[in-house]
Amino acid sequence: MDAFDDARPVMERLDLLTAPVAAALREWRGPVPVDQVFHVDTDPERADTAVLVESYGAWLLELSANCVVVAAKRGGAVTLAGCLVLAHTRVDVNGVVRRHLGARKASFAPMETAIGETGMEFGGITPIGLPAGWPLLVDAAVVHAPWVLIGSGSRRGKLILPGKALAELPGVTVLEGLGVG
User: What Pfam families does UniProt report for this protein, alphabetically (predicted)?
Assistant: First the structure.
């Protein structure tokens, strides 16, 4: 967190978050207290991981994690799920995700679906505050990281928290190999 001059406890910054993220933080439960979650107010133009790393340093890539929305289909049913992996990996959509969700086909959800269903901005989607009932698949490497930088629900800002806190989110399943090289 030393690289960010503007890191503050997230509860002081709820006004900068999207409604679902702020609501989830107000209801925060689990062994990691909400006072260990921080918000960094960043330029929306630096929201993409590559630009953020270029702006703050290559070391940040190892601490960053990206959340994507996946659409898993079986028959006529579609299941939307959040998937969180370290930024230097990619989500194994057609392997781990498809098998875990019991789908015949899985793909990244269209941008309109991702933002419409989550109430978050594209490029800022976070696992905190995803719709109730959604599966949330988190790579084990994320959970084992001492600190992780994730989206805040909007392109403005990032959240920093202990990786183990993500294992306690609603609907979470921690999976080995979700993120592949």
Answer: tRNA_edit (PF04073)
